[in-house]
Amino acid sequence: MCGIVGYIGKKNTTEILLDGLKELEYRGYDSAGIAVLKNDKIEVFKALGKLVNLEAKVNEQASGDYELGIGHTRWATHGKPTELNAHPHLGEYSYVVHNGIIENYKELKEELSEKGHKFVSQTDTEVIVHLFENFYNISNNTTEAFKNTISRLEGAFSILLITKADPTKVFFFKHGSPLIVAKGIDENEVLFASSDAPLIGLASSVVYLEDGVGGIATASNIEFFSDNYSWSTLPASKQFAQKDGFRFFMEKEIYEQSVVVSDSMLGRIKDNEILFDEIDSSIMDGINEIKICACGTSYHAGLTSSYLFERLSKVKCSIEVASEFRYKEPLLSKDILFVVISQSGETADTLEALKMAKAAGLKTLVVCNVDNSSMTRTADYTILTRAGIEKGVASTKAFSTQTVVLWMLSLYFAKARNVISSDVLQKELHTLREVPKALCISDKIHEKTKRLSKRYLHGHGFFFIGRDVFFPLALEGALKLKEISYLHAEGYPAGEMKHGPIALADPELFTIALMPQNLLYDKIKSNVEELSARDSTICAISPLDFDLADDFIKINKCDHYMLEFFEMLVVLQLFSMEISVRLGNDVDMPRNLAKSVTVE
User: Would you put residue 386 in left (φ > 0), alpha (ψ -120 to 50) or beta?
Assistant: First the structure.
């Protein structure tokens, strides 16, 4: 999840590019760069870290006015955050910025290398500019070269490309990642950006590009390759634009889950198998146990995956709370694969647990959202979740992407250990491909959670109950409600109710029951009936009607419990958010909490 900007016009090009990148810095801050062109000369400025580092370099080194330029702020997916891997990427005479993932970059890189192209970065993006120059060297036509280039790319890619071969033009294309084209307020002025915010105050009208739409822009004209576009007006405020029209960043991030989960899977489900460039099957050599260590929401993702590792990979799996693990004098043997999970890669307790495992000589793997974080630098292996920046303090898309990555990892290990049949593997892969659809939110579901929320603002607490993987989902649902509504909530395995908690049951105790059709439905139904008989107020979430529910949220019927899992996840997130809204709380910045816990 990166941010890209572009500009053609007579204003201060470097200033417009830098100001635009500031509006997009929340999309990535591993590195940033701009390429600017004047009189057939392209100058490039790149810097690691926050945008202020690039700004200082531009202010010191830029030589004058420029006619056009492109810029990028990076969230690393392929290649470490280094200046060499920072965008824009260059060929011999062209530069490109890219938001997304090129799935077939390895094949293209090998093909182009055989033709004599020299690659200097570790990124997938660099193949785009070399592919363009390869086609241009054949046709001597920039438009044809660009069209041929985009026809060869697979994955998600929004692209801006400039070239000395046609120095008055910016070539653009959108497929799977956001890109907007805008007419400037002044005549002979064109702008590009990943979102509205950089364009407000500078543009008069915009095209929100659909997938498969691209074109070529000069100062006086924008030529689209198809008729599938329309002009519209901009939002009035930058804050509204950053949130893409949503009320809160948390709401935006709940809705983004379908897209970012697709990003998590890009290039990793291919030819009917799971592929991870970051590891190979030898990672399981000599391994008889997986131990997962995490905190908070990441712990819940780890707990979910522990069911999948044992069920699919047929390997013993245990889950540890990182803050407790460090002090229990754990027994660590070298047949354990030690897996840590963290959104930021900086969570203090989890990082210290990772260091303990490393010191004990264990193989270590981190599932993380931030490349070049402390954990990714420490662990033997890293798998990035590709969730993009999460501005809401209460994690949403971090959980869904972690869970999907760990699910894929369980299948990868199952194949490596030769413990999964081809039929089961294909069914799981088919289900994984359906997850983005399960995470799409219908207006009907959101409206239902909004209406129901007003009934759950009082009482003396909530039970969230589920079985199997729906137990950690119940824990996550309870945590979300606690974090942003400040109401007391507990997640429980449904079968544990009669072992004590059911003593609390009365009309002022609200039970949120997760009742999947495809996993232990009769068992959970019996547990909910026990609570209903003791007058607990029941809100059931299920694809099957349930007469004893006081409130009922119906999800779609499907043929796999993990699709039900993800549908219920968004219901729980929306439900917690709407209760918080009715209580007048700050949804994005709940009291007493921080996004990344870097102290014990």
Answer: left
Mean pLDDT of the chain: 91
Which is the catalytic residue, given 314, 358, 437, 595? 595
Is 2 noted as a catalytic residue in this protein? yes
3-state helix, strand, coil in the chain (%, to 5): 40, 25, 35
Which whole number is the average pLDDT over 102-115?
Answer: 92
- Measure the CA dihedral 331/418/519/290, to 10°: 10
Taking only the tens place, the pLDDT of each residue in 274-320 is 999 899 889 999 999 999 999 999 999 999 999 999 999 999 999 99
CA 527 to chain centre: 35
Alpha carbon of residue 465 to chain centroid: 27
Mean pLDDT of 87-102: 88
pLDDT beyond 50 at 416: yes
355 included as an active-site residue: no
Catalytic hit among 2, 293, 295, 539: 2
Phi-psi label, residue 541: left if phi above 0, alpha if psi -120 to 50, beta otherwise: beta
Distance from C-alpha of 358 to C-alpha of 182, rounded to nearest angstrom: 51
Q: What is the pLDDT of residues 391-404, one digit of tens each?
A: 888 999 999 999 99
Neighbours of 418 (CB within 10 A): 8
Q: Could you identify the residue written with the tokens 């270590």? A: 364
Q: Quick check: 596 and 502 in contact, CB under 8 A?
A: no
- Are 540 and 493 in contact by the 8 Å Cβ rule? The answer is no
Q: Say which range, 166-170, 194-198, 289-293, 423-427, has the weakest mean pLDDT.
A: 194-198
> Which residue stretches of 88-125 are H helix?
105-114
Residue 212 near residue 228, CB atoms below 8 Å = yes
CB 203 within 8 A of CB 234: yes
Q: Degrees (nearest 5) of the Cα angle 59, 200, 54?
A: 20
- Identify any residues that bridge with 463 across adjacent strands, giving them in sequence order: 490, 511
Q: How many angstroms separate the Cα of 293 from the Cα of each of 282, 305, 327, 332? A: 22, 12, 13, 13
The dihedral built from the CA positions of residue 349, 350, 351 and 356, taken in this order, carries a sign that is positive
Cα–Cα distance, 584 to 600 (Å, whole number):
30
pLDDT value for 87 = 80
Say if residues 413 and 313 touch (Cβ distance below 8 Å). Answer: yes
Cβ atoms within 10 Å, residue 99: 28
Q: Which residues contact 500 (CB under 8 A, 6 or more apart)?
A: none
Question: Over the stretch 4-19, which tens digit does the pLDDT of each residue have?
Answer: 999 999 999 999 999 9
Summarised one tens digit per residue, pLDDT across range 460-514 is: 899 999 999 999 999 999 999 999 999 999 999 999 888 988 888 888 899 999 9
The arithmetic mean of pLDDT across residues 171-188, rounded, is 91
Q: Where is 28: in which H helix or E strand?
A: none
User: Can you give the pLDDT at residue 14?
Assistant: 92
Exposed (0-12), middle (13-18) or buried (19+): which is 277, by Cβ within 10 Å?
exposed
For residue 6, what are the contacts with CB-CB under 8 A and spacing of at least 6?
Answer: 17, 68, 69, 70, 71, 97, 160, 170, 172, 190, 191, 192, 193
